[in-house]
């Protein structure tokens, strides 16, 4: 089948006019509305991101504005979560949350004095307080300045809520953004396979927005399966964000090319599945796993959404014919994927094994890494909780599904390593301990958990650098499960969180951490070169300034496990220097006093190891005053 040609790079005149007439909303909490995190995005732990993240382009100190006439109701100060945050209430019952601020120096600087007092009273820097109705703001007034407190790089987190319900801030026409870029569609997934998509056509709506049409690179009809769509949306910025909505349509027996030639702006058929993230109840903030596949979703890269209701255990086979997946953003753009389901294409979704005994029709696929097993599944009822234990090869581990966390019916089982058809390779930086790999399988089907599962127990360590890993079929790599809470020379004790099942194995970590310079986040009072208070050099001399400080920041990354921060050492020309780790990032921050440096510059040396004891390559940086 030939690839259909899309529109030329030159926009049609009517599209140019529509875009020229478009006006960006004037009621954003920041002057330049560029989005780095969308409403409803997947977050770790099965959480929804229930606000918007506004980019501040790695700068702090940008004025943050009140979007309505409102009054400060609650103040946060913390080194996690919202960081320095304010909740403001409007007369109509809505509340607006501003997070990760640098300070509250705005219309009411008294709020900043209160924050500083809370910090002094709570050295752990985790406090919040309800406020009396003393601090009122008019629409457009400054409430404070942007920062990077709490979690993440510099940005502003902004929420709109009312009555226990969070709304998408972009629903307000006064907060619309200039976005004519359609979501990008990457893959059509099944439980164990991925089918890459490619763009084949582009058209435009009457108001100038974009509809991008995709087909699978392999045009073969697929068998009926529980499909998922892998996608992201830039929202006219450089980040990869989640999308606003997903719809799946059955178009009947018509061909793909004829449908594209006559594709309407709005699809007339009723969707057989629909998901739109217009709002999220507070009681549902940890139910994102109902809509996202946590095993395949890679935050900031590819968001993988189910194309079926995960709470429905027995789903019908898809009819043969043409299907369309429509992916919507919050601005009016869409990406559409067309694919066919055939009657006799089961081999497309299965491994090259001899034909098996036919069972009752279902949409479930067998994992090509596992042999056909007669080990029975245990049926799991919603919210009941369950535990599965494996003991063998020096391992004694239990997988626990907490009661109240499982949504919908599911089934699961433990498989011995003999049921693994082909052990995935160790990969770069990892090594198996011997010819016989110590492993087991937690084989779970249709399991949707709000929050986490847990794995606990102990393993015997034959080598000091052995760790517990979980195979990731999407990335084709082994994921480090986590750090033991206790270790001896021969045993490691675990109690860790899990989001998925699969093949677990004990593998040696032989890779080194990597160190490279990071962009130094700029601050209002403390830029790349800053001053810190110091005692006067002469008694009674108040004119002496504090020492000049040069700020250096370094990203330190270990692909195989994690950096052991306790092994960190920093030297300036061989003299030890103090350092600090950013609490929520793998970022090492060093303040270099200029008075300690040589006139023409000095060498900064960093030494660090990972949790398996592997040291990073020697790292040197030349620092000039």
Task: Provide a descriptive summary of the structure in words.
The chain contains 3 helices and 44 strands. It is mainly beta. It has 4 domains: 141 residues, Glucose Permease (Domain IIA); 158 residues, no CATH class; 132 residues, Chondroitinase Ac, Chain A, domain 3, CATH 2.60.220; 110 residues, Immunoglobulin-like (Sandwich), CATH 2.60.40. Strands 1, 4, 5, 6, 7, 8, 9, 10, 11, 12, 13 and 20 form a 12-stranded antiparallel beta sheet that branches. A 9-stranded mixed beta sheet has the order 19-18-22-23-16-15-14-17-21, with no helix packed on it. The protein is globular and about 75 Å long. The N terminus is likely disordered.
Number of domain modules: 4
Give the overall average pLDDT: 87
Q: How much of the sequence is in beta strands?
A: 35-45%
Helix count, DSSP H or I runs of 4 or more residues: 3
**What is the CA–CA distance across the termini?**
63 Å
**Overall morphology:** globular
| Extended strand count | 44
The residue ranges in which pLDDT falls below 50 over 5 or more consecutive positions are 1-7, 344-363, 520-540
For the sheet with most strands, the description reads: 12 strands, antiparallel
**Quaternary state of the chains:** single chain
Rg measurement, Å? 27 Å
Measured as a percent range, the helix fraction is: under 10%
Class inferred from helices and paired strands: mainly beta
